[in-house]
Structures are given as structure tokens and as C-alpha cells.
Amino acid sequence: MLKKKIFFVSLVVLTFLLICQPLYSFEVADITTELKNHITKQVQIEYPDIVISDIKINILNAQQLQKIPTAAASYKINFSPIKKIIGQLVLGIYFYDINHTYLEKKSIILEIDAYANYLLSSRIIYAQEVFTAKDIKQKKLSIKNKPLNCLRFSKEVLGKQALATIGQNNLILKWMVKDIPLVKKGDSVQVRMKNKNIELTFLGKALSEGRKGDIIKIKSLDYKKILKGEIIDSKNVQIPLNY
Question: How do residues 188-200 score in pLDDT, each as one tens digit?
């Protein structure tokens, strides 16, 4: 008789545990893994050179994921288009029962940051100076709150000129750097005027500076006339004959 009572009590307890056991077939780790994988991909789309180990994702209210509805059988994360991936981000997670009926929404707050190499000036660089390898240094910094026009690769500055004076240890921004002009104001150039059948050449003086393909003003030394021509290289400017 005692054995029957023990068996009956055990059966009741087991039934109770089975009823109370969550129905969902996923783990909290499944949700966090999906969150982090998606965010990591988004960061790498915006910053392709950043490695995964330099991406930091922190769930600020992770305790919300310990309160999943007992009847939840599935979930869906609302990855709507993200305008700003770095910083704080709120994503909604929707839970459904075995019949795909909506149960509850959890709002998850994430703090996202990433680290990348930035170019800094290793000394004071004065306007018109040409950048050399000794003038710049790379430092890994958080991309949070950094201007979008920061330069991060040495090839973007080496051999180019500083447009303005840059203080020591300053971030180097795109507007601070310019290509060295092929033709400078006051340079003597060979001016060519040509069409299919005729070509004329004469000496001219550049009245402005420019790079290959730029249109600049030239003063003819022979005729004292001001013309406009396209820079071909550091010594030659071309003007259409029908100018």
C-alpha cells in the first residue's frame, strides 16, 4: 500500500513538472548568438577592415532574456534597418507559442563599439608640407563619436600636402589633405591647341594651380591672351582649337 502511495505521489510531481516545463525548444544562448552575429555582420559591412575580435557587443539588460514566457515555442528578432550601428541600440524580440500565436515582446538594449586604426599626426604639420611616413602614426581607437571623414590608411596621405596646419597627435581628417598640384600658379607650360588636322604650340604661364585633368587659366606669353586649358601633365596644357 505504501509503495502505491509513493508511486502515485511521484507520478503527480512528475506530471506537475512536465506541465510547468517551458515549451520552447531554444536556449537563451541561441538568441544572444543570433543578436551578436547579426550586429557583427552589420559593423563589418560599414567598416570592412575591422576584425571580429575588435567588435564589442554588450547586452545591457540581459536579465530580460531570463524571463521568457513559459509557453514560448519560437521567437523572432526585429532587425529593422539600422541607421546607426555604433552606440546604443534597442531591438525587439517577439515570442510565439506552439500555434504561432504572439505572446510577448522583450526590448533588448545593446551597447555596440568597435576599434580601428586611425591616422594621427606625430608632430606639428604646417600647411603646404608634404606628408612622409615620419609625420603620421597609426593608433587603434574606438570608432564611437569619431568623424566619418577621419583618414585611417597611410596611402591616403603619404606624398600629399597638408591643406592647413595640423597639431601634434591630432586625428587627420580628409579636408586637411590635398594632392600636390601637377601645375602650380606661375609655372611655365607648353600650350597645345589642336584638332584633327592642325596643331599649334606656344609658351604660357599658369594663372592657377591644378592636377591632371583640371581646367586652369593660362596666359599666352606671345599674345598676352588669357585662355583656359586642361592639364595633361606637369609641363603641358591642351586647349581645343575651336576655343
Answer: 999 998 877 788 8
Contact between residue 171 and residue 118 where contact means Cβ atoms under 8 Å apart:
yes
Residue written as grid cell 581628417? 173
Residue range 116-178, CATH number: 3.90.1210.10
CATH number at 188-240: 2.30.30.760
206: cell is: 599658369
By CB atoms closer than 10 A (0-12, 13-18, 19+), residue 114 is: buried
Q: 219 and 225 in contact (C-beta within 8 Å)? A: yes
What is the model's pTM?
A: 0.66
Mean pLDDT of 62-73: 90
| Sequence-separated (6 or more) residues with CB below 8 Å from residue 47 | 114, 116, 143
CA atoms within 13 A on the CB side of 171: 18
Confidence band, pLDDT 50/70/90 cuts, at residue 7:
very low
Determine contact, residues 179/211, Cβ cutoff 8 Å: yes
| Domain positions in the chain | 22-114, 116-178, 188-240
The SS3 of residue 29 is helix
Alpha-carbon distance 198 to 180, whole Å?
Answer: 33
Residue ranges of alpha helices (H) inside the chain are: 2-20, 28-46
Best CA proximity match to 57, nearest among 44, 70, 69: 44
